[in-house]
Amino acid sequence: MDALSTDKLRRRCDPASLPFASTTDLAERHELIGQARALDAISLSSQMPHRDFNVFVVGPNGTGRHTAALKLLGNEASKRTLPADWVYVNNFEAAHKPKALCLPPGTALKLKRTMQKIVDDLGSDIPALFESEEYQTQRRAFDQELGEAQEASMADFADRAKAEDVALLRTPMGFMLTAIRGGELVKTEDYQKLDEDEQAEIDEKIRRLQEDLASVLRQAPKREKDHRKRVEELNAQMAERAVSARVAEVETELQAIQVVAGYLENVREDIISNAELFLQAAAEKSDGPFPEAIHKFHRDPMFDRYVVNVMVPQDGEPREGAPVLTEDLPTLDRVTGRIEHASHMGSLMTNFTMIRPGALHRANGGYLVLDARRILSEPYAWDALKRCLKNQAITITSMAERLSLVSTTSLEPDPIPLNLRVVLIGDRMLYTLLVLLDPDFSELFKLQADFEDVVDRTEDNLIVFARLLGSFALREGLRPMTAASVARLLDEATRLADDSKKLSLRLGALSDFIREADHYAAGRDSDHIDDSDIERAVTEREKRASRIKDRIQEAITRKTVLIDTDGAQVGQINGLAVIGLGDYRFGRPSRITARVRMGAGKLVDIEREVELGGPLHSKGVMILSGYLTSTYALDVPFSLHASLVFEQSYGGIDGDSASSAELYALLSALSGLPIHQGIAVTGSVNQTGQVQAIGGVNEKIEGFFETCAARGLTGDQGVLIPKSNIEHLMLRSDVVDAAEAGKFRVIPIETIDQGIAVLTGTEAGVRDASGAFPDGTVNALVEAKLRGFAETRKAFARPTGKDSDGTDK
Amino acid sequence: MTLQSRSPQRMLIGAGCFADAQAALQLAERIAGILAGDLGGLLVEETIVTEVVDLPGQRVVTSSGTLVVAPSPQQVRTLIESDARAFRDTLSGLAQSKACKWSFERRHGDLIGGGCAAAVGWDILLLGHRGTHRQDGKVVLIAPPTVAQQSAVELAKDLAEALHVDLIVVSLGAVETAVQQREPFASEADLLAHINRTNASAVVLDLAAGPLHTHDQLRHLLAVARCPVLVLGAAQGEPSIAHTTHIPPVSDGSEP
Fold it and tell me: Lesser CB count within 10 Å: N end or C end of chain A?
């Protein structure tokens, strides 16, 4: 097979083909390219008025998902009206159930300040009113009336008792009455000396006066109750005068809002019935350096009941339209809001002023952008978000409450109606898992915005991509890029795409190159970024990440890891593997050996036996087993016992990209033909012997190239790749240069027969009309070996020392 | 000039039971700022109480207006014991809070007689009387007949100031006092009748200076005032006989 021509090994963008000399010549472009499908989905979600059309933005990192989503949502949000303000106020009837008030935009802070002013004013007004002569006079009159009424009752009783010659005695238990005769108290012994009439007379008046006294004393609590009621009425009357005056001063604009008017009426009634709070505050007020007139009573915790707890103010943020909010730390508390507690005398106390808004409150009426992985990894946050979306209301529930960790005073605030669009951004794996495992997900997130990884490398797209890169440099304040540097960067985009016909849309990685190149350009005192800066950025990045790769190559060079790059060996071949560390991937050769003998048709994959091989690798080995059994010696039992192993492999191996190499090693072992060790192999194989495309072809070729280059390129070295991988080739310049110089080859093949011929230098052979492979071909040798195994096995199975009738000789 | 600036006033609190003593103790606590002297407690077990509890149909009217069966003499004694302990404990607590010395004494007999007798050596005798309601009343000063006797006047003024209540001055006949507003009464009966219908927090008088001097007058005053009474010169009022004195004297067996 012929090696690939160098123009197939790397696609180069000709700077001359770009219609600009520098990116300064280009019109700006901010729109993404190749993402129309995803952007349409986001637009649809942002415009749909119906519920549950939330969107999950799917795609790999660095494709501009966040930026694009925020930009689209921002555009749509600016067309929307400013959402309402929300506040929590005290529920004067049930303090544990704070009331949520929906106010016109920009009203919340005004109402809050108004209430603070009312409290501050009443803090001075009410005490002044209660200290006034008018109040004090009335109050004294009430008190005096009560005291005198009580005394009058007792005095009347005392007069009656005195008139009837009865004395009142005070005892530990209460009052006792006894008669007076001749100025002396009648004792028991005196009483017994009296005649019956006198005793009866005394008994009667004592009994009557006892009832009388009891009645007088029983009136005291009732009088006090009436007195309290009169005082309360007086207090209310006085407070009402002050409160009504202050409430009446509230701006007409606020009074016109129905919920505000209702709230102010509740406040008015509550202040009137709790006027003593203001008296208490005035009494406790410490004399600070400022005069009483500017004392801020609203800061006193006892007036918390009149606080307006602003959850969502619109005039605090100078913007128009609906909010677009991103929550970077979407914990339960930060998503749905929280109810804080304060420690008081060893107990945790709370009230409605400690309700804090969450992202849902702030984004209500607009859009909330969340990272899917983050919200899913925060306990109860995802569950709470779904519940709020499902109920179309924000209900605040703390995690401690959910877990019953603490038992303390808590609140049940009114749920706030929710009307917002949630945009989740995540990767495909998360999206798939949510679709499969969460039945609510598909209902609540009806739209999927799937971002592409790559876009076709067409002439038009190259220009558009160049404009995008130039705009980025401009936006970031970087130096303009020359056409050559853009061309180099576009080639790198192709390399990142793993496809010579595509451009990677991972703009994050490309923008990192531009920033780094800008730094190098600055070091050169250049006012432009040119291709050498981009090249250096790429090389430096490779260098920074390649410590492990270098150590592996060093181990190969020093023959700590055994890899032959010349000569020929039977049953031994160089496979190629890719090792990935984050975004960085590199290839390395790995020796694969095969050993065969007669057996019962068993192919031992040593990697699988020791559980170092993954399922895909095992699948590849079983496929090549299928190829062997269906290709050779079909008329005899498959009597092979073979073992395959990746030598000096101490980690796990997965993937089927080495299955063709394993098959070549087996064929070599069976045929006895040595394999040229200067050629490494990659590609998977199917049961019909076709070689199929694999991933990481560039890194694999480069990995073997580096090994060969370290030992000196001989010109016989190269890599067998599947023909279907030709389009994915975007090799490094040094590999291309070596190929150009005839020192290294990349050989595309389509079948195993083509591959084994290249590797052994012997034709594979095709069955002739008689069904036999031509003598001397690889396949003929393999079939002969397998047939030989079968014969031998057959001989073992034949009974020894027995006649045809089965009796011993 | 107030009592605070004068020498400490030693006060003896006398009562027939704890309910009366408590009213006096509460008053003493409220005026602690103006009386810095030692405190004494005197519980007089009035014999008349045990002598009338056995009367047929006798019942007790409690402060809340409930009629209950009168206790037996034995029960009365038990209650008195309990009251004495409570009186003593409360008095000691009050004294400790004022950081002053205190003493407690029990006597039998008549509260007024016993109290005046025990008041020898004390500046003020405070006679307790339970209240029938909680509304603060005025301080009533029974003005002494001469201007020279101004101790009671000063005490009454300080008391009214400490209690934040009005001071009213009543007198028998027209007398000159340092207090401008006063009500003269022609007779003692009129004066007592007026006090009977006055809501008073305390009544102040000087038994030595008059116009009331005798124990009977003081007893009537306490009954009509229905509030604690602060008595100056209690020991110098009606000449009293020491409680250990027997009339006629007990014969020692020797012939005169």
Answer: C
The beta-carbon neighbor of A188 closest among B54, B59, B137 is B54
- B-chain residue closest to A216, CA distance: B65
Contact A188/B55, CB-based, under 8 Å? yes
Percent of all residues in chain B with a pLDDT value above 70, rounded to a whole number: 85
- For the record, the structure tokens of A248 come out as 């009446």
The shortest C-alpha distance from B58 to chain A (Å) reads 8
Nearest to A621 by CA among A591, A663, A668: A663
- Residue-wise burial string across A692-714, b where 16 or more C-beta atoms lie within 10 A, e elsewhere: bbbebbbbbbbbbbbbbbebebe
Q: What distance in Å separates the CA atoms of residue A743 and residue A735, rounded to the nearest whole number?
A: 9
Residue A727 is predicted with a pLDDT of 93
Which residues have C-beta within 8 Å of that of residue B15, sequence separation ≥ 6? B21, B24, B42, B43, B44, B87, B111, B127, B128
The upper half-sphere exposure of residue A52, i.e. CA atoms within 13 Å in the direction of its Cβ, equals 10
By C-alpha distance, the chain B residue nearest A178 is B52
- Global pTM value: 0.69
Residue A191 structure tokens = 């009483």
β-partners of residue B114 are: none
Q: Judge if the upstream peptide bond of residue B211 is cis by omega within 30 degrees of 0.
A: yes
- Residue A642 and residue A627: Cα distance in Å, rounded? 14
Interchain pair A185, B65: CB under 8 A: no
Angle at B135 between CA B132 and CA B139, to 5 degrees: 95
Query: In the A/B pair of chains, how many CB contacts fall below 8 A?
Result: 141
Q: At what angle do helices A778-797 and A659-671 cross, to 10 degrees?
A: 70
* Strand-by-strand arrangement of the A421-426 sheet: A324-327, A367-371, A421-426, A55-58, A447-450
**pLDDT < 70 regions, chain A:** 285-294, 316-319, 406, 409, 798-809
Q: Phi/psi at A604 (nearest 5 deg)?
A: -95, 115
Q: How far is CA A3 from CA A10, A495, A587, A694, A719, in A?
A: 14, 21, 20, 18, 9
Say yes or no for a CB contact (<8 Å) between A224 and B134: yes
Asked about A504 being catalytic, the answer comes back as no
| Residue of A502, A700, A723, A743 with catalytic role | A700
A5 Cβ contact list (under 8 Å, min separation 6): none
Return the residue of A nearest to B165 by Cα. A140
A657 assigned to active site: yes
Q: How far apart are CA A419 and CA A283, in angstroms?
A: 47
**If you ran DSSP here, which 8-state letter would residue A250 be given?**
S
Nearest CA among A765, A779, A586, A573 for reference residue A679? A573
DSSP A607-647: HHHTT-B-HHHHHHHHHHHHHHHHHS-TTS---EEEEEEET
Between CA B251 and CA A107 the distance in angstroms is: 101
Interface contact A286, partner B, CB < 8 A: no
Q: In this structure, what are the phi and psi dihedrals at residue A463, rounded to the nearest 5 degrees? A: -65, -45
According to DSSP, the β-strands at A584-598 and A347-349 are unpaired
Rounded to an integer, what distance in angstroms lies between the CA atom of residue A391 and that of residue A411? 19
Best of A176, A192, A201 to substitute, by most chain B Cβ atoms within 10 angstroms, is A176
- Name the closest residue on chain A to residue B77, using Cα atoms: A172
Catalytic one of A657, A659, A660, A684: A657
Contacts of A221 in chain B (CB under 8 A): 64
pLDDT tens digits, one per residue of A101-144: 999 998 999 999 999 999 988 888 888 888 888 888 888 888 88
- Phi, psi of A346, rounded to the nearest 5 degrees: 85, -5
Closest in B55, B56, B61 to A213, CB measured: B61
Query: Hunting for tokens 């020692």 — which residue is that?
Result: B252
Instruction: Please check whether residue A762 is in contact with residue A673, taking contact to mean a CB–CB distance below 8 angstroms.
Output: yes
pLDDT reported for residue A253:
83
CA A143 → CA A3, B24, B106, distances in Å? 117, 22, 37
